[in-house]
Amino acid sequence: MKAILRVLGLPALLVLAWWAYSASADNFYVPDPGRVAAAFAETWFGERLLDDALPSLGRLLAGYVVATAVGVGLGVPIGLSARLRATAEPVLEFFRAIPPPVLVPLIMLLAGIDDTMKVLVIVSGCVWPILLNTVEGVRALDGVLADTCRMYGISRRHLILRGASPQIMAGLRQALSVGIILMVISEMFASSSGLGFTIVLFQRGFQIAEMWSGILLLGLLGFALSTAFRWCERRILFWHWSNRA
Amino acid sequence: MTRALPAPVYGAAGLAALLAVLEAAPRLGLVDARFLPPASEILAELGGLLLTPGLWIALGETLRGWALGLAIAFVAAVAAGVLIDLVPGLRAASNSTIEFLRPIPSVALIPLATLLFGASLGSTLLLVVYASFWQVLIQVLYGVADVDTVARDTARSYGLGRWSYIRHLVWPTALPYVMTGVRLAAAVAFILAITAELVIGSPGLGLEIQTAQSGGAVPTVYALVVLTGLIGIAVNVGVRALERRVLAWHPSVRGTSQ
Protein backbone atom coordinates (compact mmCIF):
# COMPACT_ATOMS: atom_id res chain seq x y z
CA MET A 1 0.00 0.00 0.00
CA LYS A 2 2.75 2.39 1.01
CA ALA A 3 4.77 1.43 -2.05
CA ILE A 4 1.85 2.12 -4.38
CA LEU A 5 1.34 5.50 -2.76
CA ARG A 6 5.02 6.27 -3.23
CA VAL A 7 4.98 5.41 -6.94
CA LEU A 8 1.60 6.89 -7.87
CA GLY A 9 1.13 9.62 -5.26
CA LEU A 10 3.00 12.45 -6.93
CA PRO A 11 1.84 11.67 -10.48
CA ALA A 12 -1.75 11.61 -9.25
CA LEU A 13 -1.26 14.96 -7.55
CA LEU A 14 0.23 16.41 -10.73
CA VAL A 15 -2.65 15.22 -12.88
CA LEU A 16 -5.04 16.65 -10.30
CA ALA A 17 -3.22 19.99 -10.44
CA TRP A 18 -3.39 19.92 -14.25
CA TRP A 19 -7.11 19.20 -14.08
CA ALA A 20 -7.73 21.94 -11.53
CA TYR A 21 -5.74 24.42 -13.61
CA SER A 22 -7.52 23.59 -16.87
CA ALA A 23 -10.91 23.80 -15.13
CA SER A 24 -10.27 27.17 -13.50
CA ALA A 25 -8.01 28.99 -15.99
CA ASP A 26 -9.87 28.11 -19.17
CA ASN A 27 -6.63 28.33 -21.15
CA PHE A 28 -7.19 27.40 -24.79
CA TYR A 29 -3.81 25.69 -25.00
CA VAL A 30 -4.34 23.55 -21.89
CA PRO A 31 -7.31 21.18 -22.29
CA ASP A 32 -8.37 19.10 -19.31
CA PRO A 33 -6.82 15.63 -18.84
CA GLY A 34 -10.10 13.87 -19.65
CA ARG A 35 -10.26 15.40 -23.11
CA VAL A 36 -6.64 14.60 -23.82
CA ALA A 37 -7.21 10.99 -22.74
CA ALA A 38 -10.28 10.75 -24.99
CA ALA A 39 -8.35 12.28 -27.89
CA PHE A 40 -5.51 9.85 -27.22
CA ALA A 41 -7.76 6.80 -27.47
CA GLU A 42 -9.58 8.18 -30.49
CA THR A 43 -6.47 9.24 -32.39
CA TRP A 44 -3.95 6.54 -31.75
CA PHE A 45 -5.96 3.32 -31.37
CA GLY A 46 -6.81 3.00 -35.02
CA GLU A 47 -5.38 3.66 -38.43
CA ARG A 48 -2.82 6.12 -37.19
CA LEU A 49 -1.12 3.43 -35.16
CA LEU A 50 -0.46 1.45 -38.33
CA ASP A 51 0.08 4.38 -40.69
CA ASP A 52 2.13 6.72 -38.55
CA ALA A 53 3.39 5.26 -35.32
CA LEU A 54 4.66 1.87 -36.48
CA PRO A 55 6.51 3.10 -39.62
CA SER A 56 8.22 5.74 -37.47
CA LEU A 57 9.34 3.07 -35.04
CA GLY A 58 10.46 0.83 -37.90
CA ARG A 59 12.66 3.56 -39.32
CA LEU A 60 14.11 4.29 -35.90
CA LEU A 61 14.92 0.63 -35.40
CA ALA A 62 16.44 0.24 -38.88
CA GLY A 63 18.62 3.32 -38.44
CA TYR A 64 19.65 2.25 -34.97
CA VAL A 65 20.67 -1.24 -36.07
CA VAL A 66 22.68 0.05 -39.05
CA ALA A 67 24.37 2.66 -36.85
CA THR A 68 25.27 -0.03 -34.30
CA ALA A 69 26.77 -2.29 -36.98
CA VAL A 70 28.77 0.54 -38.55
CA GLY A 71 29.80 2.07 -35.23
CA VAL A 72 31.02 -1.16 -33.65
CA GLY A 73 32.44 -2.47 -36.95
CA LEU A 74 34.60 0.60 -37.46
CA GLY A 75 35.23 1.26 -33.78
CA VAL A 76 36.98 -2.04 -33.04
CA PRO A 77 39.77 -1.70 -35.66
CA ILE A 78 40.24 1.97 -34.83
CA GLY A 79 40.41 1.19 -31.13
CA LEU A 80 42.98 -1.58 -31.66
CA SER A 81 45.47 0.47 -33.64
CA ALA A 82 47.04 3.44 -31.89
CA ARG A 83 48.12 4.99 -35.16
CA LEU A 84 44.71 4.66 -36.79
CA ARG A 85 43.16 6.13 -33.67
CA ALA A 86 45.45 9.16 -33.68
CA THR A 87 44.64 9.70 -37.36
CA ALA A 88 40.89 9.34 -37.06
CA GLU A 89 40.22 11.02 -33.73
CA PRO A 90 40.06 14.72 -34.78
CA VAL A 91 37.82 13.84 -37.72
CA LEU A 92 35.50 11.79 -35.51
CA GLU A 93 35.40 14.44 -32.78
CA PHE A 94 34.40 16.98 -35.40
CA PHE A 95 31.59 14.84 -36.75
CA ARG A 96 30.34 14.12 -33.27
CA ALA A 97 30.29 17.82 -32.42
CA ILE A 98 27.96 18.65 -35.32
CA PRO A 99 24.43 18.85 -33.88
CA PRO A 100 22.69 15.90 -35.63
CA PRO A 101 19.52 17.82 -36.64
CA VAL A 102 21.49 20.04 -39.08
CA LEU A 103 22.21 16.89 -41.05
CA VAL A 104 18.53 16.66 -41.98
CA PRO A 105 18.69 19.40 -44.67
CA LEU A 106 21.99 18.00 -45.95
CA ILE A 107 20.77 14.46 -46.28
CA MET A 108 17.57 15.73 -47.88
CA LEU A 109 19.79 17.24 -50.58
CA LEU A 110 21.70 14.03 -51.13
CA ALA A 111 19.01 11.40 -50.71
CA GLY A 112 15.67 13.05 -51.43
CA ILE A 113 12.79 12.94 -48.96
CA ASP A 114 11.77 9.28 -48.83
CA ASP A 115 12.21 6.61 -46.18
CA THR A 116 15.88 6.15 -47.08
CA MET A 117 16.53 9.76 -46.17
CA LYS A 118 14.90 9.36 -42.77
CA VAL A 119 16.81 6.18 -41.98
CA LEU A 120 20.05 7.80 -43.18
CA VAL A 121 19.43 10.80 -40.93
CA ILE A 122 19.00 8.48 -37.94
CA VAL A 123 22.14 6.51 -38.87
CA SER A 124 24.19 9.66 -39.38
CA GLY A 125 23.29 10.94 -35.92
CA CYS A 126 23.46 7.67 -33.97
CA VAL A 127 26.72 6.36 -35.35
CA TRP A 128 29.12 8.84 -33.68
CA PRO A 129 28.40 8.17 -30.00
CA ILE A 130 28.51 4.42 -30.70
CA LEU A 131 31.72 4.66 -32.72
CA LEU A 132 33.58 6.89 -30.27
CA ASN A 133 32.53 4.86 -27.25
CA THR A 134 33.55 1.62 -28.97
CA VAL A 135 36.97 3.10 -29.76
CA GLU A 136 37.34 4.20 -26.15
CA GLY A 137 36.19 0.83 -24.79
CA VAL A 138 38.53 -1.19 -27.02
CA ARG A 139 41.44 1.12 -26.26
CA ALA A 140 40.99 0.75 -22.53
CA LEU A 141 41.04 -3.08 -22.58
CA ASP A 142 43.06 -4.45 -19.70
CA GLY A 143 46.48 -5.65 -20.91
CA VAL A 144 46.79 -8.31 -18.22
CA LEU A 145 43.36 -9.61 -19.16
CA ALA A 146 44.39 -9.77 -22.82
CA ASP A 147 47.52 -11.77 -21.96
CA THR A 148 45.52 -14.10 -19.71
CA CYS A 149 43.01 -14.71 -22.49
CA ARG A 150 45.82 -15.54 -24.89
CA MET A 151 47.29 -18.00 -22.39
CA TYR A 152 43.97 -19.75 -21.91
CA GLY A 153 43.15 -19.68 -25.60
CA ILE A 154 40.03 -17.57 -25.22
CA SER A 155 39.15 -16.03 -28.56
CA ARG A 156 40.28 -12.48 -29.12
CA ARG A 157 36.94 -11.45 -30.50
CA HIS A 158 35.21 -12.56 -27.33
CA LEU A 159 37.69 -10.64 -25.20
CA ILE A 160 37.34 -7.43 -27.23
CA LEU A 161 33.57 -7.35 -27.49
CA ARG A 162 32.98 -8.41 -23.91
CA GLY A 163 35.66 -6.14 -22.54
CA ALA A 164 34.42 -3.11 -24.42
CA SER A 165 30.71 -3.83 -23.95
CA PRO A 166 30.10 -1.50 -20.96
CA GLN A 167 31.44 1.42 -23.01
CA ILE A 168 29.59 0.28 -26.12
CA MET A 169 26.34 0.14 -24.14
CA ALA A 170 26.98 3.69 -22.88
CA GLY A 171 27.33 4.78 -26.50
CA LEU A 172 24.17 2.92 -27.47
CA ARG A 173 22.24 4.66 -24.70
CA GLN A 174 23.29 8.10 -25.98
CA ALA A 175 22.52 7.02 -29.53
CA LEU A 176 18.98 5.97 -28.55
CA SER A 177 18.00 9.44 -27.37
CA VAL A 178 19.64 11.02 -30.42
CA GLY A 179 17.75 8.53 -32.60
CA ILE A 180 14.36 9.46 -31.13
CA ILE A 181 15.06 13.16 -31.67
CA LEU A 182 16.03 12.53 -35.29
CA MET A 183 13.06 10.26 -35.92
CA VAL A 184 10.72 13.09 -34.92
CA ILE A 185 12.62 15.87 -36.69
CA SER A 186 13.12 14.03 -39.97
CA GLU A 187 9.33 13.68 -40.13
CA MET A 188 8.72 17.33 -39.36
CA PHE A 189 10.59 18.24 -42.54
CA ALA A 190 8.92 17.43 -45.84
CA SER A 191 6.93 14.36 -44.87
CA SER A 192 3.39 13.13 -45.16
CA SER A 193 3.30 10.50 -42.45
CA GLY A 194 4.91 9.58 -39.17
CA LEU A 195 4.61 10.77 -35.57
CA GLY A 196 6.50 14.03 -36.04
CA PHE A 197 4.42 14.94 -39.07
CA THR A 198 1.12 14.11 -37.37
CA ILE A 199 1.84 16.15 -34.25
CA VAL A 200 2.79 19.22 -36.29
CA LEU A 201 -0.34 18.69 -38.39
CA PHE A 202 -2.53 18.77 -35.27
CA GLN A 203 -0.71 21.86 -34.04
CA ARG A 204 -1.21 23.70 -37.35
CA GLY A 205 -4.92 22.77 -37.29
CA PHE A 206 -5.22 23.96 -33.67
CA GLN A 207 -6.42 20.49 -32.64
CA ILE A 208 -5.03 21.12 -29.19
CA ALA A 209 -6.23 17.98 -27.39
CA GLU A 210 -4.98 15.80 -30.26
CA MET A 211 -1.64 17.61 -30.22
CA TRP A 212 -1.28 16.96 -26.50
CA SER A 213 -2.14 13.31 -27.07
CA GLY A 214 0.70 13.15 -29.61
CA ILE A 215 3.13 14.71 -27.13
CA LEU A 216 1.92 12.16 -24.60
CA LEU A 217 2.47 9.32 -27.07
CA LEU A 218 6.03 10.49 -27.79
CA GLY A 219 6.61 10.69 -24.07
CA LEU A 220 5.33 7.15 -23.53
CA LEU A 221 7.46 5.98 -26.44
CA GLY A 222 10.58 7.58 -24.98
CA PHE A 223 9.82 6.04 -21.61
CA ALA A 224 9.12 2.58 -23.08
CA LEU A 225 12.27 2.57 -25.19
CA SER A 226 14.48 3.63 -22.32
CA THR A 227 12.92 0.99 -20.07
CA ALA A 228 13.45 -1.67 -22.75
CA PHE A 229 17.02 -0.48 -23.18
CA ARG A 230 17.74 -0.75 -19.47
CA TRP A 231 16.34 -4.28 -19.45
CA CYS A 232 18.62 -5.31 -22.35
CA GLU A 233 21.57 -3.59 -20.76
CA ARG A 234 21.12 -5.52 -17.53
CA ARG A 235 20.97 -8.80 -19.46
CA ILE A 236 24.02 -8.04 -21.59
CA LEU A 237 26.12 -6.63 -18.77
CA PHE A 238 24.93 -9.13 -16.16
CA TRP A 239 28.57 -9.92 -15.33
CA HIS A 240 29.58 -6.31 -14.78
CA TRP A 241 30.13 -5.06 -11.22
CA SER A 242 27.44 -2.43 -11.59
CA ASN A 243 24.81 -5.16 -11.95
CA ARG A 244 26.09 -7.51 -9.29
CA ALA A 245 25.48 -5.49 -6.16
CA MET B 1 57.79 -0.35 -37.34
CA THR B 2 59.21 3.11 -37.69
CA ARG B 3 59.65 5.64 -34.95
CA ALA B 4 56.30 6.82 -33.61
CA LEU B 5 55.35 10.34 -34.60
CA PRO B 6 53.45 12.56 -32.14
CA ALA B 7 49.66 12.15 -32.21
CA PRO B 8 48.85 15.63 -33.63
CA VAL B 9 50.79 14.73 -36.80
CA TYR B 10 48.51 11.77 -37.38
CA GLY B 11 45.48 13.84 -36.51
CA ALA B 12 46.45 16.49 -39.04
CA ALA B 13 46.99 13.76 -41.62
CA GLY B 14 43.51 12.43 -40.91
CA LEU B 15 41.93 15.84 -41.35
CA ALA B 16 43.93 16.40 -44.53
CA ALA B 17 42.77 13.04 -45.89
CA LEU B 18 39.13 13.94 -45.16
CA LEU B 19 39.51 17.28 -46.94
CA ALA B 20 41.24 15.60 -49.89
CA VAL B 21 38.41 13.08 -50.27
CA LEU B 22 35.78 15.81 -50.00
CA GLU B 23 37.69 17.84 -52.60
CA ALA B 24 38.29 14.98 -55.01
CA ALA B 25 34.91 13.24 -54.94
CA PRO B 26 32.91 16.08 -56.55
CA ARG B 27 35.78 17.13 -58.85
CA LEU B 28 36.10 13.62 -60.24
CA GLY B 29 32.36 13.36 -60.65
CA LEU B 30 31.89 10.61 -58.06
CA VAL B 31 29.12 12.66 -56.48
CA ASP B 32 27.12 15.48 -58.00
CA ALA B 33 28.94 18.75 -57.27
CA ARG B 34 25.57 20.48 -57.04
CA PHE B 35 24.74 18.43 -53.95
CA LEU B 36 28.23 18.09 -52.44
CA PRO B 37 30.50 20.98 -53.45
CA PRO B 38 34.29 20.50 -53.20
CA ALA B 39 35.80 21.16 -49.75
CA SER B 40 37.68 24.23 -50.97
CA GLU B 41 34.45 25.81 -52.11
CA ILE B 42 32.77 25.09 -48.75
CA LEU B 43 35.65 26.58 -46.80
CA ALA B 44 35.81 29.63 -49.08
CA GLU B 45 32.07 30.10 -48.54
CA LEU B 46 32.56 29.84 -44.78
CA GLY B 47 35.36 32.42 -44.98
CA GLY B 48 33.08 34.74 -46.94
CA LEU B 49 30.22 34.24 -44.46
CA LEU B 50 32.45 35.07 -41.53
CA LEU B 51 32.94 38.54 -43.02
CA THR B 52 29.21 39.28 -43.05
CA PRO B 53 27.61 40.83 -39.96
CA GLY B 54 24.45 38.73 -40.44
CA LEU B 55 26.30 35.56 -39.56
CA TRP B 56 27.67 37.00 -36.35
CA ILE B 57 24.22 38.20 -35.35
CA ALA B 58 22.81 34.72 -35.97
CA LEU B 59 25.69 33.18 -34.05
CA GLY B 60 25.00 35.55 -31.17
CA GLU B 61 21.31 34.59 -31.15
CA THR B 62 22.16 30.89 -31.05
CA LEU B 63 24.69 31.29 -28.25
CA ARG B 64 22.31 33.49 -26.29
CA GLY B 65 19.55 30.87 -26.41
CA TRP B 66 22.07 28.21 -25.49
CA ALA B 67 23.61 30.06 -22.55
CA LEU B 68 20.34 31.42 -21.17
CA GLY B 69 18.59 28.05 -21.41
CA LEU B 70 21.51 26.25 -19.81
CA ALA B 71 21.66 28.78 -16.97
CA ILE B 72 17.91 28.51 -16.23
CA ALA B 73 18.05 24.72 -16.32
CA PHE B 74 21.10 24.68 -14.08
CA VAL B 75 19.62 26.90 -11.38
CA ALA B 76 16.27 25.09 -11.47
CA ALA B 77 17.85 21.63 -11.37
CA VAL B 78 20.21 22.44 -8.50
CA ALA B 79 17.39 24.02 -6.49
CA ALA B 80 15.06 21.08 -7.19
CA GLY B 81 17.79 18.55 -6.40
CA VAL B 82 18.68 20.11 -3.06
CA LEU B 83 15.00 20.47 -2.16
CA ILE B 84 14.32 16.81 -2.98
CA ASP B 85 17.26 15.83 -0.79
CA LEU B 86 16.27 18.00 2.16
CA VAL B 87 12.56 17.18 2.44
CA PRO B 88 12.21 13.74 4.03
CA GLY B 89 10.41 11.23 1.83
CA LEU B 90 10.38 13.47 -1.21
CA ARG B 91 13.11 11.51 -2.99
CA ALA B 92 11.13 8.28 -2.88
CA ALA B 93 7.90 10.06 -3.79
CA SER B 94 9.35 11.89 -6.79
CA ASN B 95 11.33 8.97 -8.20
CA SER B 96 8.58 7.58 -10.45
CA THR B 97 7.71 11.04 -11.79
CA ILE B 98 11.32 11.85 -12.62
CA GLU B 99 11.92 8.47 -14.24
CA PHE B 100 8.86 9.04 -16.41
CA LEU B 101 9.48 12.64 -17.41
CA ARG B 102 13.21 12.30 -18.03
CA PRO B 103 13.16 10.13 -21.17
CA ILE B 104 10.47 12.24 -22.88
CA PRO B 105 12.25 13.58 -25.95
CA SER B 106 12.16 17.37 -25.75
CA VAL B 107 11.47 17.59 -29.49
CA ALA B 108 7.99 16.33 -28.57
CA LEU B 109 7.45 19.81 -27.15
CA ILE B 110 8.11 21.51 -30.51
CA PRO B 111 4.40 21.94 -31.37
CA LEU B 112 3.66 23.32 -27.92
CA ALA B 113 6.59 25.74 -28.17
CA THR B 114 5.36 26.86 -31.59
CA LEU B 115 1.89 27.60 -30.23
CA LEU B 116 3.03 29.33 -27.07
CA PHE B 117 5.99 31.34 -28.32
CA GLY B 118 6.08 31.15 -32.12
CA ALA B 119 9.40 31.66 -33.86
CA SER B 120 11.16 33.43 -31.02
CA LEU B 121 13.70 33.00 -28.27
CA GLY B 122 10.98 31.57 -26.00
CA SER B 123 10.65 28.46 -28.15
CA THR B 124 14.39 27.87 -28.07
CA LEU B 125 14.43 28.33 -24.31
CA LEU B 126 11.55 25.90 -23.70
CA LEU B 127 13.30 23.09 -25.60
CA VAL B 128 16.76 23.84 -24.24
CA VAL B 129 15.61 24.12 -20.63
CA TYR B 130 13.54 20.93 -20.75
CA ALA B 131 16.35 18.91 -22.31
CA SER B 132 19.15 20.11 -20.05
CA PHE B 133 17.15 20.25 -16.79
CA TRP B 134 17.00 16.46 -16.43
CA GLN B 135 20.67 15.96 -17.27
CA VAL B 136 21.67 18.24 -14.39
CA LEU B 137 18.94 17.12 -11.96
CA ILE B 138 19.88 13.44 -12.20
CA GLN B 139 23.51 14.22 -11.47
CA VAL B 140 22.57 16.54 -8.58
CA LEU B 141 20.45 13.75 -7.08
CA TYR B 142 23.35 11.28 -7.35
CA GLY B 143 25.68 13.89 -5.90
CA VAL B 144 23.67 14.92 -2.85
CA ALA B 145 23.08 11.26 -1.98
CA ASP B 146 26.83 10.67 -1.89
CA VAL B 147 27.52 12.69 1.28
CA ASP B 148 29.72 10.66 3.57
CA THR B 149 27.72 9.41 6.57
CA VAL B 150 30.59 9.96 9.01
CA ALA B 151 30.99 13.51 7.78
CA ARG B 152 27.25 14.03 8.11
CA ASP B 153 27.18 12.75 11.67
CA THR B 154 30.21 14.87 12.49
CA ALA B 155 28.49 17.94 11.07
CA ARG B 156 25.43 17.18 13.14
CA SER B 157 27.31 16.67 16.37
CA TYR B 158 29.16 19.95 15.83
CA GLY B 159 25.81 21.63 15.43
CA LEU B 160 26.16 22.85 11.83
CA GLY B 161 23.10 24.78 10.73
CA ARG B 162 21.13 23.77 7.69
CA TRP B 163 22.70 26.43 5.49
CA SER B 164 26.32 25.71 6.45
CA TYR B 165 25.56 22.00 6.11
CA ILE B 166 24.60 22.60 2.49
CA ARG B 167 27.42 25.02 1.87
CA HIS B 168 30.29 23.02 3.40
CA LEU B 169 29.21 19.42 3.01
CA VAL B 170 26.54 18.84 0.39
CA TRP B 171 27.82 21.28 -2.20
CA PRO B 172 31.48 20.12 -2.31
CA THR B 173 30.33 16.48 -2.41
CA ALA B 174 27.88 17.08 -5.21
CA LEU B 175 30.04 19.43 -7.28
CA PRO B 176 31.88 16.78 -9.36
CA TYR B 177 28.52 15.20 -10.22
CA VAL B 178 27.00 18.59 -10.98
CA MET B 179 29.85 19.38 -13.35
CA THR B 180 29.31 16.08 -15.17
CA GLY B 181 25.67 17.06 -15.52
CA VAL B 182 26.64 20.49 -16.83
CA ARG B 183 29.00 18.95 -19.37
CA LEU B 184 26.28 16.63 -20.70
CA ALA B 185 23.67 19.37 -20.58
CA ALA B 186 25.86 21.87 -22.47
CA ALA B 187 26.14 19.53 -25.46
CA VAL B 188 22.43 18.66 -25.40
CA ALA B 189 21.46 22.32 -25.01
CA PHE B 190 23.46 23.25 -28.10
CA ILE B 191 21.77 20.52 -30.14
CA LEU B 192 18.32 21.65 -29.00
CA ALA B 193 19.06 25.35 -29.59
CA ILE B 194 19.99 24.59 -33.20
CA THR B 195 16.98 22.26 -33.55
CA ALA B 196 14.52 24.90 -32.37
CA GLU B 197 15.92 27.37 -34.88
CA LEU B 198 15.92 24.82 -37.67
CA VAL B 199 12.42 23.47 -37.13
CA ILE B 200 10.46 26.30 -35.50
CA GLY B 201 12.39 29.12 -37.14
CA SER B 202 13.60 30.99 -34.05
CA PRO B 203 16.40 33.35 -35.09
CA GLY B 204 19.91 31.85 -35.11
CA LEU B 205 22.25 29.63 -37.08
CA GLY B 206 19.61 26.91 -37.50
CA LEU B 207 17.30 29.38 -39.21
CA GLU B 208 20.17 30.45 -41.50
CA ILE B 209 20.68 26.82 -42.50
CA GLN B 210 16.98 26.40 -43.10
CA THR B 211 16.84 29.57 -45.24
CA ALA B 212 19.92 28.61 -47.24
CA GLN B 213 18.56 25.13 -47.85
CA SER B 214 15.17 26.27 -49.10
CA GLY B 215 16.91 28.87 -51.27
CA GLY B 216 19.10 26.19 -52.84
CA ALA B 217 22.34 27.79 -51.60
CA VAL B 218 24.08 24.44 -51.17
CA PRO B 219 27.63 25.65 -50.37
CA THR B 220 26.17 27.95 -47.72
CA VAL B 221 24.35 25.04 -46.08
CA TYR B 222 27.58 23.06 -45.91
CA ALA B 223 29.57 26.04 -44.65
CA LEU B 224 27.04 26.61 -41.85
CA VAL B 225 27.04 22.93 -40.92
CA VAL B 226 30.84 23.03 -40.65
CA LEU B 227 30.50 26.12 -38.48
CA THR B 228 28.05 24.40 -36.11
CA GLY B 229 30.53 21.53 -35.81
CA LEU B 230 33.30 23.94 -34.88
CA ILE B 231 31.07 25.62 -32.29
CA GLY B 232 30.14 22.20 -30.94
CA ILE B 233 33.83 21.44 -30.42
CA ALA B 234 34.35 24.84 -28.79
CA VAL B 235 31.45 24.13 -26.40
CA ASN B 236 32.94 20.76 -25.42
CA VAL B 237 36.43 22.16 -24.92
CA GLY B 238 35.12 25.16 -23.01
CA VAL B 239 33.03 23.11 -20.59
CA ARG B 240 35.89 20.71 -19.95
CA ALA B 241 38.17 23.65 -19.13
CA LEU B 242 35.50 25.02 -16.78
CA GLU B 243 35.17 21.62 -15.13
CA ARG B 244 38.91 21.41 -14.52
CA ARG B 245 38.94 24.91 -13.09
CA VAL B 246 35.98 24.49 -10.77
CA LEU B 247 37.21 21.10 -9.56
CA ALA B 248 40.88 22.09 -9.29
CA TRP B 249 40.82 21.05 -5.62
CA HIS B 250 39.28 17.63 -6.33
CA PRO B 251 41.53 14.52 -6.26
CA SER B 252 40.27 13.41 -9.70
CA VAL B 253 41.61 16.60 -11.27
CA ARG B 254 44.46 17.52 -8.90
CA GLY B 255 46.77 14.77 -10.07
CA THR B 256 46.37 15.37 -13.78
CA SER B 257 47.30 19.00 -14.29
CA GLN B 258 50.99 20.00 -14.45
TrEMBL record, chain A:
Residues 71-236 form the ABC transmembrane type-1 domain. The keyword Transmembrane helix applies. Residues 1-25 form the signal peptide. GO terms for biological process: cellular response to sulfur starvation; transmembrane transport. InterPro entries: MetI-like, MetI-like_sf. SUPFAM superfamilies: MetI-like. Keywords: Cell membrane, Membrane, Signal, Transmembrane, Transmembrane helix, Transport. It is found in: Cell membrane. The keyword Transferase does not apply. It is a multi-pass membrane protein. GO terms for cellular component: plasma membrane. The chain crosses the membrane at residues 61-82, 94-113, 119-141, 175-199, 211-232. This is Nitrate ABC transporter permease. It comes from Acrocarpospora phusangensis. The lineage of its organism: Bacteria, Bacillati, Actinomycetota, Actinomycetes, Streptosporangiales.
Automatic annotation (TrEMBL), chain B:
Pfam families: BPD_transp_1. Its main location: membrane. Keywords: Cell membrane, Membrane, Transmembrane, Transmembrane helix, Transport. It is found in: Cell membrane. It is a multi-pass membrane protein. GO terms for cellular component: plasma membrane. The keyword Transit peptide does not apply. One of its GO terms (biological process) is transmembrane transport. The chain crosses the membrane at residues 40-59, 66-87, 107-133, 174-200, 220-239. Residues 51-243 form the ABC transmembrane type-1 domain. Belongs to the binding-protein-dependent transport system permease family. This is Nitrate ABC transporter permease. It comes from Acrocarpospora phusangensis. The lineage of its organism: Bacteria, Bacillati, Actinomycetota, Actinomycetes, Streptosporangiales. The gene is ssuC_4.
